[in-house]
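Researcher: I need the complex structure. Ligand is fe (ii) ion. Inputs:
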Amino acid sequence: MRQVDLGDIQGPILIFGGAYFNLEATQALIDAANANRILAEQCIFTGDRIAYCGNPSETQNLLRDFGCPMIKGNCEIELAAGSDTCGCGFEAGSTCDLLSRGWYAFANQQVSANQRQFMGALPDHLIFTHYGKRYIVLHGGYSHVSQFLFPTTPDPDFIHVINEIERDFGAYDGVIAGHSGIPFHKCIAGVT
Ligand SMILES: [Fe+2]
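Model: Output:
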């Protein structure tokens, strides 16, 4: 797994993920960052630019040209590898399973070789400090990129992820993850 150290980030940080090839929403987010004078280097993308929406190539290029720090999610990993599924591990026959078959096949047709190479070369984790605190950015879990962590996930699952991080990198004040699609905040074992 590849990790990139962003150093110390000053000022506000805009964290987003799951662009899902939604060109309009991604452009709106970049416009909001610009309107609030949040520089691209203060924005962090937590992965999964690929999913349900209809502008794979345009959204990928928009994110690339915006140039914010970003990691790859399971969708980038699978698309870069030329796989035939998004790697979410949805239950066979579930609504998510059926929908993902449709959007993944469409995205797989639309994305160029250069775009796959770009996505595959993205780091797995980012680390940074912000006002004296250390943060790590993951996609899903730490060792399991498509692990879903929801607000209802039992605390021991979060503690397991925290322990994995501390085993490899030492203590962190905060863990930032994407993938689940549900914004939430928890403080567990002293880690936010
Ligand atoms: Fe994901």
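Model: Summary of the prediction. The radius of gyration is 16 Å.
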